[in-house]
C-alpha cells in the first residue's frame, strides 16, 4: 500500500494542472509552477501583456519558458513504473486471472476483460464491446469535457483579468480624487490663512489709527482743560478782591477770557470712517461666503421616532439654533400628523424645560422662540404638542437619537419628536 501511494504521489507531480495528463515537454514558470508548453501557451493566447500563471495568478514573463529537464526525467521514470505495475497486474493488455489478451470492455463494470471473462458468470449478462471501440468512444467524451472545461477556464481567466483591470482603474480614480481633495483643501486652508492674516493686519492698522487719534484727542483735551483750570483759578482769585485791587489789570484778564478759543476734541476723519466701513463690508462678504460654503456641506440632523414607529428626520442649521425638515419625504409621517404652515412646535425637555420652536417667516424652518421652565406640575418628559392646534398630539419614544448640537439642543437631554414642516395635507 505504501508503494502504491508513493506511485500515486509521483503521478500527481508529473500531471499537468491544465490538461490533467502527463506533462508533454514540461516547462517551469518564474513562480515555480510547471505546465505543458503547449497548454500554457494556449492559455496566454490573445494577451499581449499581463501574463499570469494559470495556477497561482502571479504575473510572469512569457519568454521565460524554460524546459524542466529534471521533471522530464522523473516523468520517464513514472511511465516506467506504470508499465511495470501494469505487467505485474496482467500488464501488456493481458488478463491477470486468465492470462488472455484484454480485447473486450465491460460497459457495466467499466473495465477491460478477456474472452474468458466475457463467458464467465460475472460478465455473461453485461454489455461488452471491443477495447478499441470503447477507448475511442471514451476519448471522444473526454475531449468534449476537456473542451468545455477549458472554455470555462478561459472565460474565468478573462473575467479575472478584466476584473483586475477594472479594480485598478477604480483605485486610480479614488487615489486621484483623494489627491485632488487634499490639494484643494490645502489651497483653501492657505487661502483662508492668508485672508485671515490680511484682515487681521488691516484691523491692527485700524486699531493703531484709532488709538493714535484717541491719544491725540486726550492730550489736546488735557492741555485745554489745564488752560481752562488756570484761567478759572485766576478769575476766582480776582473775584475775592475788593475795590481798586479787584480792578487792577481787569482789562487784561477780560481780554484773555475773550480771546481764549478752545478746540473741540479730535474727531475721526472721514478717511478712517471709510476704512472702517470697507473693513466691515469685507467681513460681511466673508461671512456670507462661509455661510454659502457651509450650506453645500452635509448638515447635522435630528432623527426620532413617533409613537407609531415612523422614523422622522429634521436637519439642524445655524449651529444648532434651527431645525428644518424633513430630509426626505419618505421619512415624513402620514397626513394625520402634518400641521399647517403657521404652526409651531413645543417640546418638553428633560428636567421640566419647555422649548418652543416657532416658524421662521417665509421659510420652512423652526427656531427656538422661547426657552423657559414649565410651570409646576410639569408634564411628563415624553409628551409633545403642536400649537396653535391642540391636536394632533402623540407620545415620544423611550429612546431618541440625536446627532445635532447647539445651544438650544444642549439645554437638556432631548425628548423630542421631529415633525414634518410642510403645509397641512387634506
UniProtKB/TrEMBL annotation:
InterPro entries, A to Z:
TRIM/RBCC, Znf_B-box, Znf_RING, Znf_RING/FYVE/PHD
Q: Enumerate the GO terms in the molecular function aspect.
A: zinc ion binding
Ordered alphabetically, the record's keywords are: Coiled coil, Metal-binding, Zinc, Zinc-finger
Q: Which residues form a coiled coil?
A: 189-216
* SUPFAM superfamilies named in the record: B-box zinc-binding domain, RING/U-box
Q: Which residues form the B box-type domain?
A: 94-131
Q: Specify the domain of life of the species encoding this protein.
A: Eukaryota
Domain RING-type as annotated: residue spans: 16-57
Which protein are we looking at?
Zinc finger protein RFP
